[in-house]
Design goal:
The protein is an all-alpha fold. The chain has one domain. About 85% of the residues lie in helices and about 0% in strands. Helix 2 packs parallel to helix 6 and helix 5 packs across helix 6. The protein is globular, with a radius of gyration of 18 Å. The termini are far apart. The relative contact order is 0.15. The model has no long low-confidence stretch (mean pLDDT about 90).
Length: about 240
C-alpha cells in the first residue's frame, strides 16, 4: 500500500484547523462579544456562523485551484453528476438506515451526534439549518475526502480510510469525557461508527465515480437537508 505521508500530514492539519485551531483562535477574539451579548440569540447565531464561514474560506483558499476546475466540470456535467450523487446517497442511506435500526435495538438509544444535532436544531434553528445543510457538507467533503484524494494510490484504501475517519469524527461527539465512568458508559456509541462510515463510503464513491468533489457535496447536501427537514417536521407535529 503506497501512502503519501506528506500529503496525509497536510490533510490532517486541515482537519485540525477546521475542528480545533480556527474555532479556538476565533473564540479568543470573539469572547468579549459573547460575554457582552450573553443570551442574545441573534448575536450567538452570527458568532457561531462566523466560525463556520472562516473555516470554509480557509479550506477553499487552500484547495482553490482544483476546486475551481472541479466546479466548472460539475456545472458542465450537472445532470449526470447529480444522478450519480442521488444514486450513491440513496444506497448509502438505505444501508445506514438499516444499520441504525439494528444498533438502536442493541445500544438502546440513537447516536450521540444525532441527539446533539437535534438539540442544537431545537435551540438554534437558523444556525443549524445553515450549518448542517449548507456549510457543513462543503467543509466536511473537502476536509475528509478531497484532502486525502492524493494520499493513497489505491481507491479502495482511500474509500475505507476516509469512510472510517468520517464515521469516527461523527461518533466522537457522542462520547462523554466528563469522567472515567461516564466515558465507559458511552463506549457503546462507538458502534455508530458503522452507519456513519457506510454513508461516508458512498459519499466517497460519488467523488471517485466523477472525480469531482462537488458530486459528493451534493450527496451530503441531500442527506443533511432531508434529515433536517424530517426533524423539523417531527418537532412541529409533536
Amino acid at each position: 500500500m503506497k501512502v503519501n505521508f506528506k500529503k496525509m500530514g497536510i490533510a490532517f492539519l486541515i482537519i485540525f484547523l477546521y475542528l480545533l485551531i480556527i474555532p479556538q483562535i476565533l473564540g479568543i477574539f470573539l469572547k468579549p462579544i459573547i460575554m457582552n451579548f450573553q443570551g442574545n440569540y441573534v448575536i450567538a447565531t452570527i458568532v457561531n456562523l462566523l466560525v463556520y464561514v472562516i473555516d470554509l474560506l480557509v479550506i477553499i483558499f487552500i484547495y482553490r485551484k482544483s476546486l475551481f476546475k472541479e466546479l466548472k466540470d460539475y456545472i458542465k456535467n450537472f445532470k449526470d453528476y447529480f444522478k450519480v450523487a442521488l444514486n450513491r446517497w440513496g444506497k448509502g442511506f438505505i444501508l445506514m438506515f438499516l444499520a441504525n435500526i439494528i444498533l438502536i435495538s442493541v445500544v438502546g438509544n440513537m447516536a450521540g451526534n444525532e441527539q446533539t444535532n437535534r438539540e442544537i436544531l431545537n435551540a438554534m434553528p437558523i444556525f443549524s439549518v445553515i450549518t448542517m445543510v449548507f456549510l457543513g457538507p462543503v467543509i466536511e467533503e473537502i476536509a475528509f475526502r478531497k484532502g486525502f484524494r492524493e494520499v493513497f494510490k489505491s481507491d479502495k484504501v482511500f474509500l475505507i480510510f476516509t469512510s472510517l475517519l468520517f464515521g469516527s469524527m461523527h461518533v466522537i461527539n457522542g462520547l462523554d469525557f466528563q469522567s472515567g465512568s461516564s466515558l465507559i458508559q458511552s463506549l457503546p456509541q462507538l458502534f455508530y461508527i458503522i452507519p456513519y462510515s457506510i454513508l461516508g463510503y458512498f459519499f466517497g464513491k460519488a467523488y471517485l465515480d466523477t472525480n469531482c468533489i462537488f458530486t459528493s457535496i451534493t450527496s451530503h447536501f441531500i442527506h443533511n437537508g432531508l434529515s433536517v427537514l424530517l426533524i423539523l417536521v417531527s418537532q412541529m407535529l409533536l
